[in-house]
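the three lines:
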Amino acid sequence: MTLFKKLMDKINGDFREKDIISLDQFTQKDIKILFSQVPKMRTIALKAMPSKIIAGKIVVILFYEPSSRTFGSFSTAIKQIGGQTVEILNPQQFSSVVKGETFEDTIRVFEAYSDAIILRHPERGTAAAASDAAKCVPIINAGDGVGEHPTQALLDLYTIYEKFKRLDNLNVLVAGDMLNGRTVHSLTRGLALYPKNTVYLLSPDDLRLSRKDYSNFIGRGVKLVEINSENDIPKNAHVWYWTRVQKERFKNIKDYEKLKNKFVVSQKFLEKYAGKNTILMHPLPRVGEILTEVDNDPRAVYLRSQIRNGLYVRMALLALVLER
Amino acid sequence: MTLFKKLMDKINGDFREKDIISLDQFTQKDIKILFSQVPKMRTIALKAMPSKIIAGKIVVILFYEPSSRTFGSFSTAIKQIGGQTVEILNPQQFSSVVKGETFEDTIRVFEAYSDAIILRHPERGTAAAASDAAKCVPIINAGDGVGEHPTQALLDLYTIYEKFKRLDNLNVLVAGDMLNGRTVHSLTRGLALYPKNTVYLLSPDDLRLSRKDYSNFIGRGVKLVEINSENDIPKNAHVWYWTRVQKERFKNIKDYEKLKNKFVVSQKFLEKYAGKNTILMHPLPRVGEILTEVDNDPRAVYLRSQIRNGLYVRMALLALVLER
Amino acid sequence: MTLFKKLMDKINGDFREKDIISLDQFTQKDIKILFSQVPKMRTIALKAMPSKIIAGKIVVILFYEPSSRTFGSFSTAIKQIGGQTVEILNPQQFSSVVKGETFEDTIRVFEAYSDAIILRHPERGTAAAASDAAKCVPIINAGDGVGEHPTQALLDLYTIYEKFKRLDNLNVLVAGDMLNGRTVHSLTRGLALYPKNTVYLLSPDDLRLSRKDYSNFIGRGVKLVEINSENDIPKNAHVWYWTRVQKERFKNIKDYEKLKNKFVVSQKFLEKYAGKNTILMHPLPRVGEILTEVDNDPRAVYLRSQIRNGLYVRMALLALVLER
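prediction for all of em together
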C-alpha cells in the first residue's frame, strides 16, 4: 500500500486494527468517538483501577530516539488498560540493525512478537514506511521527526474540548516559532477540521509560517491572523498555546534575546493580556518562556491537565485500536 | 557442580527447575515434550489470551550484550504466559560490576530477586558459569558468544517439524558460512539427534566446516555432503537454511563479492533449485542474501513462522521450566 | 513545603501517600509497623504468589544514575505485589532534560503518569527537592548521592531484627571506611533509635568517623567504640557489618594495601574472632574483603538473606505507601 493510499484510508469510526500515522486520517466523527472514551480512561487512571480492556495484548514500544515523556506516556497508557509492553530503545545501536538489517525487516521481526507497535523515529515518513512493511499489526506513530505526532495533536485538541465542550468557534493564540514548530502546525490542522476557528500566530517576523504552510492551512478552512506584538493579542482568546523558541534557529542572537524577553508569560503578562477563561497550554519542555509563578494559576493547564490528557487520549486510542 | 557434570545432567522430560544451557542436554524425548506444548502457546499468543501459566513469577532478563531480537522474543514469551520481567541491560556498565564485583556475585544478587534468569553474554562458557553460581533459580542461556544459543536451535527444529511432522529422514541444505556459523552448527547437532538425516553444506571452500566440527557431526550420526555450487543442490530438499556470509571473514574481498553474487536467493533461483515443498529458512538478520521479492513466496518462512515459532518455543520452554 | 518541614513530617504509622526521603522520618513505631508486614511479603515472593496488593498502580522508576541492584530490587518489589513499573533510566540524556527542562518540571511530568516515583539521583538533596515539586504522588528515595538511601538502612535493620528478634541491646561491629561509608552511617543512625546498642567501629585511623558524625551519633544515644585492630573485636558480637574500602580514598597506596590484607574475612578469621551466632553482613558489592570460602558459612547472610530482605522490606514499604 502506498503512502498516499494509506493516508487516504480514513478511520471513519472503525479504529480496530488500524495504523495511526497522521492526524489527516481523522474526521470529526473519529475524534468524537475517540474523545467519548476519554472520561472512562480518566476514571481508570485516577482510581488506579485494574483494567482488562486489552488484557493479553503485547505492545512493542520501538523508539529510535529517546523521548522519555512520550515513552512514559505510552508505556503507562498500555499498562493502565491491562496490556503489556516490550520496550526496545535505540535498536539502531543493536546488532541486527548494525549488521545491515533493513528497517522493513526490523519492523517485521517486531510485529511477529506483538499486537501493535508504537514507533518513534527521527526521520519523517518512517511511520508510513513501517505501516507499509507491517503485515499483521497496527503501527502507531509516536513522532517521526519533523513529520507527524498525531497523539500530541489529539491531546491538545482534547484539552481544549474538555474546557469549552466544543472545537469550533474558537479564538486560539499560538506563540513562538511558527516556522518550525511541529506542535503548532498540527494543532492548526486539527482546528481546521472544525468551522469558524481563528488562529492568531504570535511570532517574530523571522519565525513566521512558511507561505506554503500558510496557504495549506487557509485551504483547510481555518482563519489565520499573524501578529508580532503582544498588543495585538485578541481579548478573551479561548486558548493560549505557548511554545519554546529554539535559540539555534536564529541567525542573530540578539533577535533571540529580544524575543525571549518579549514573549515570556509572567503572572502580570497573563493578567494583562489573557481572559478569565483563557487556558494556557504548552507542549513542554519549557525553558523559561512561562515563569513558574504562573504554574498555580487555574488557567495554567500545561503541567497537569495537558499531560494527564495525553495519557487518557493514548489510553482511549489504544483501546479503540486493540480492544478485544 | 562442574560444567561437564552439568551438561551431562540431561533433562529427560523433567524441565522443572532445570538450567537450560546447551542443546546437548536435550534428548528426543525432551524435544517431543517441548514441542507438544507449542500449539497451546501458539493459540495463547495468536488470540492474545491472558494466561496465568507462570503468574506471579519474576524472570530477570540479564543481557551483557544487546540483542533486540532475542531480548524481544524472551520478554514477550514471559509476558504472554503471565510472568513478569525485570530487565537488566549492560550490567557491566553499572556501578557494581564496574566497582569490581565478580560475575558470580552478580548472578547471586539477581537470582535473589527472581524465579529464573535469562542470560545473554558475549563470552563462551558464561551460561555454564552462571549455572554453577546460581543456587536457587534456573539459568536459561540466550546465547553465550560463539558457544550455545539453545532456543535458536530449538525454534529452527520446530519450524522444520511443524512442516514435515518429523525430524528424521530429511534432506537439509544449509548455505553460507559453515566455518563460523553458530546457527548452522547447532541445527546440524539437533538434526543429528534423529536418524537418517542428510545435511548438504553449500559454501565456498574458504568457509567449509572445520575438520574438527566435520568429524564431530559425523560422529553424532548425521550424514554430511559438502558442495560448493548451486548445481549440486539436491532436488526436493526439505529445508533450505540460508545464512549471512560475513564480509569480514574473507581474506580476499573478491572472494566475498563472488560468493555474494552466487548464493543470493532470488525468485528465479528458488524456482530453479528448490522443490515445491521446500521451506526457506534464515536466522536473520539478512543483508541481501535473500531478495525481498521472495518474501511472499509460501515457501519463505523466515519472516513470520520462524520468528513466531521462536516466541512459541520460548513460551513452551519457560512454561515447562517454571510452571506452577 | 520546605525540606526542613518535610523531614519533620514524621510518618508515625501513616504511610499512605507519604514521601519516603530519610531514615529520620521513621520512629520505632513506624519500623515496627513496617517489619510486621515483611513475613507476608516473604511468603508472596518465595511462593511466587500472584498478589493484587497494589494492582492497577503504576510506579515510575526514575534513575538518574545506573544501579542495577537497587533498580532490580525495586522493580521486582513493585511487580511482586501486583503493581506495574514505567522505567526511565538516565533521563538527563533524553531530549527534554537536554533541552533545558528543570528537574522540578521533569518530576511533575512523571508524577502525572504515575501513582508513585522511585527516585535515584547522584546529588544529595534531590529526593527532598522532588518531594517539594511533586503535588500528587509520593516520592521514594532510592539513594541521593552521599545523602540518604533509607531502604538500604531499613533492610539492614530488618536483617538484624530477623535474627535477634530485637533491635536494642546489641553489639555491632562495623568494619571498613567509617569516614565515607553511607551504609555504615545510616545503620548507626538506625541503631540509635533503640536503647543500649554499642557500635564498634573497626577502621584504620585515616578512615575514622569525622568528629562531626561522631558527635552526631553519640548525641542520638548510641555508644561508639573506635578500634583499629582485629584483636579489639568484641567477643560474641551480634553483628559484623563489613564494607568495601575504596582504594581511591587513600593518600598512600601502601596504607590501602596494608588495610586490605588486614581486614579480609577468611574462614579462619571468622572462626577466630566471630561468635557462634554472629551474623556477617555486607551491603555489596564486595571486592575481596570477604573471601568466597565464607559464603557457605551459616553466619554469612550477605548473599541471600540480606538481598532477599531488601526485596521484602521494599515490598512492605510500597504496600504501606500505596495499598488500596
